[in-house]
Write a structure and sequence with these properties.
Blueprint lengths: L2 E2 L11 E2 L5 E2 L1 H12 L8 E3 L16 E3 L14 H19 L7 H15 L1 E11 L6 H16 L1 H8 L6 E8 L5 E10 L2 H13 L10 H14 L3 E11 L9 H10 L2 E7 L15 H9 L16 H14 L27 H10 L2
Parallel strand pairs: 6-7, 6-9, 9-10
Antiparallel strand pairs: 1-4, 2-3, 4-5, 7-8
Length: 368
């Protein structure tokens, strides 16, 4: 039973009308009130949906409201207005509906906010790392295989996992895609979280199992433009965003490299480079001397950006591991891996190698 306490309004009508529409004289009404006052019916309260009894102050059987008192005050104070009754009914109905509703959650908003905050915390990683790997025809099959193995072994290395544990969140998200021409990029590993040996092993296995492929042209700018929206689609938000580009030649296809690099830097993305220089420069493969300078002056950028050149095939795996360690730890090398001509940002100094050298070589060779 639902009980609602109500204020009582003092009314002193000289007479009243009963349920049959008959006027009851004031004398009879006073006598009836005195008899009702003599009943001991408890404290003043309103009880809804109960049967009529001797304590009912209302003659209508269809509307049963008990008003009970111990205080000995005149019975005329036991009348309530219809307005008060309607208010009581509204309050009682609202409270009852709220209590009966199975999905009633007074703090559901707070709980939802807490769940959202927990989800955001769970989605936070220390680094969002996009590995962009060159598979152009200038790379032979042995180099492509060693490159794959180098990344897989670096991810499961003891040094890498120790660096991972030292991070604030202890985890990174990583994606691995291959690139060649401006319209040729293929995701090998979509975004994955690495937070320990098991997840590292899983990512390394995925890298090694994917078929090795080769394609024509070299578009570093296309790789950068392809990587930028990947970060927006990544469900894991990182404290840093890094594009890691490896390649064995300059940009010779698609948009100029400078525009792509600058756009990525404006979005807060850091670009690091792994120029592969294990073969003598050849006109047939459109290689250039000092590819490391080209990468430093034209490709990389952002806070702590760096270049790790590979000049010996036997050092391939070591170089990849070194670069990943630096990227995960968010550190720059203790000493410059590539000499820096001037201590200014790459975009503010004159490149030592033309940033359009790849396009020029292609045009000189093919006339277009």
């Amino acid at each position: 039973m639902l009980t609602v306490m109500l204020p009582v309004f003092a009314l002193s009508p000289p007479a009243r009308v009963n349920s049959r529409g008959m006027l009851i004289p004031a004398e009879r009404e006073t006598e009836r009130r005195e008899r009702f006052h003599d009943l001991d019916c408890g404290s003043l309260e309103v009880k809804l949906n109960v049967n009529a009894n001797a304590c009912s102050a209302f003659p209508f059987a269809a509307l049963r409201v008990n008003m009970i008192a111990h205080d000995g005050r005149p019975l005329m104070r036991r009348y309530i207005s219809i307005g008060a009754l309607l208010v009581a009914s509204a309050i009682a109905g609202s409270v009852a509906a709220g209590l009966a509703a199975p999905n009633f959650r007074p703090f559901s908003v707070d709980r939802q906010s807490a769940r959202t905050a927990d989800k955001e915390d769970a989605a936070t990683v220390d680094v969002e790392l996009a590995l962009a790997v060159d598979v152009s025809y200038s790379m032979d099959m042995d180099e492509l295989a060693v490159q794959r193995e180098g990344y897989a072994q670096a991810i499961v290395s003891k040094e890498f996992l120790q660096a991972l544990k030292s991070l604030p969140n202890g985890k990174i998200s990583i994606t691995y895609f291959e690139w060649a021409a401006s319209s040729d990029q293929k995701i090998i590993i979509p975004w994955r979280v690495i937070d320990g040996p098991e997840t590292a092993d899983a990512v390394a296995d995925e890298i090694l199992k994917a078929p090795i492929r080769r394609a024509s042209r070299t578009s570093i700018s296309g790789a950068i433009y392809f990587a930028m929206p990947l970060f927006e689609a990544n469900p894991y938000r990182g404290l840093r965003r890094v594009i890691d580009i490896s390649g064995d030649g300059p940009n010779n296809n698609g948009a100029p490299i400078i525009g792509a690099r600058d756009l990525a830097l404006s979005k807060g993305i850091t670009i690091n480079g792994l120029p592969i220089m294990v073969k003598e420069p050849s006109y047939s493969t459109m290689d250039i001397e000092n590819l490391d300078w080209y990468y430093e002056d034209c490709v990389i950028g952002g806070p702590g950006s760096f270049v790790v050149p590979i000049k010996d095939k036997d050092k391939f795996r070591e170089a990849i591991r070194t670069k990943l360690l630096l990227e995960v730890a968010g550190r720059t090398p203790d000493r410059p891996i590539v000499p820096v001509a001037e201590k200014v940002a790459p975009a503010e100094r004159e490149p030592r190698v033309s940033c359009l050298i790849g396009e020029k070589i292609w045009q000189d060779r093919w006339g277009r």
